[in-house]
Amino acid sequence: MEQTAVKSKKTIFPLIYAAVMIAAHLGMPANPDKISISMELIQTFRILTALTIGMFWGILAVLFGSLWDRFIPTQNREIVMV
Prior knowledge:
Layout: H1 2-27, H2 39-70, H3 73-81
């Protein structure tokens, strides 16, 4: 019984999130401002932003992965008990 509750939670929350995002996207008015800078600058900004975000998450994963190996959670209980 608990497995079905967990499965339903794993399914329902992403669906609610997607519905809220779609409603927000459809409900917001279009931007009336004209873009006065070149599209090349915008595309370069978007590409560099995506690369920077990817580097950030990659470095964060390596950092936390190395800390995970150093402080194994199953052994933390013994450290806390001392």
